[in-house]
């Protein structure tokens, strides 16, 4: 029996319901949908890194990375990244931010497969990202 | 060679196309997108449990559970739950229903990671949920 | 340590950002979101197979198949197919195309679980599909 472990980085805001920011079981790690909330500060409600796509995308990717690392993984282990945007006009800008982020992370190759679709998100949020990793 | 097995709970309405309500291969079980249809009755078309978010969310979660159990799994095995709502105004209410459901299931911990996004669904449906489980 | 391998069918248009059309690690293969772009021709921008749901759905499924095959897999290995449409009115027609496609592929059984939701896609695109396969 392999144990399933909840992953809850200390910096994260509490999940708004009975779910975990990440779960690992054996060599599979699933990161829950992350948005661009800043690290948690006691007494402050969840606060986006800023109103712009750039601020939110970078913070969202950092939040995904925090969950991966708290679960013993990294970007190299990620198989699939799901990107949810609210506006098709944001695609090119998001790709630029995304590429620059992974270059800064020192990844020479594309880290994963990806699907991008355009959905509704709560007011003020422009991007949500989740990820599936396979370790080992 | 591990066999892939289709999972089709007897209570479920037939899938509207060539896909299965669930598939298991080795220790991985994928539940297809479930909606709030009542258990199948011969001669009756697929019928939502009711018009409300509460009725549909509870029935949808039960439909996910039926597939998990027909495949030899349960909520404890679930790694990821994807929730599709049609209206951001439903988020808080869905979370309340979701939390109460899992408390009634006797789960002390968050069962899984989760992503919630807001999409279009066929007329009258307010919620769709799918799930990925890793057994063992 | 199992190696993660990017899958890039020669016929595919280049991904518009730092991601791969598919990734395989061990027995898990993830296909990125595919759309109905025709095989790549040097000097031609990405071009949909046509304006209709039929043309785009068939091309999209072929593009998924190309990635599966380039990664050593096939439809029989697929556990989950995610279908993104832009219009709920397309559901019945997509199902007909989908069923006929898999019959032509010689698959007697439903190949996988599936979730269909309705989202925005870039201008002119009516369908996007991704897939998760477990080999072996």
Automatic annotation (TrEMBL), chains A, B, C:
- Matching Gene3D superfamilies: RutC-like
- Which InterPro entries did the record assign? RutC-like_sf, YjgF/YER057c/UK114
Protein name (database record): RidA family protein
Q: Which domain of life is it from?
A: Bacteria
Please give the organism.
Streptomyces erythrochromogenes
Q: What is the lineage of its organism?
A: Bacteria, Bacillati, Actinomycetota, Actinomycetes, Kitasatosporales
């Amino acid at each position: 029996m392999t144990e399933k472990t909840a992953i809850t980085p200390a910096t994260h805001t509490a999940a708004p319901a009975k779910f975990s920011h990440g779960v690992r079981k054996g060599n599979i790690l699933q990161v829950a949908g992350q948005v661009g909330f800043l690290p948690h500060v006691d007494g402050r409600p969840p606060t986006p890194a800023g109103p712009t796509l750039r601020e939110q995308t970078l913070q969202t990717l950092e939040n995904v990375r925090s969950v991966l690392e708290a679960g013993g993984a990294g970007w190299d282990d990620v198989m699939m990244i799901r990107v949810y945007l609210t506006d098709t006009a944001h695609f090119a800008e998001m790709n630029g931010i995304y590429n620059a982020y992974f270059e800064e992370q020192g990844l020479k190759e594309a880290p994963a497969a990806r699907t991008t679709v355009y959905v509704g998100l709560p007011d003020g949020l422009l991007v949500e990202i989740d990820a599936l990793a396979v370790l080992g």
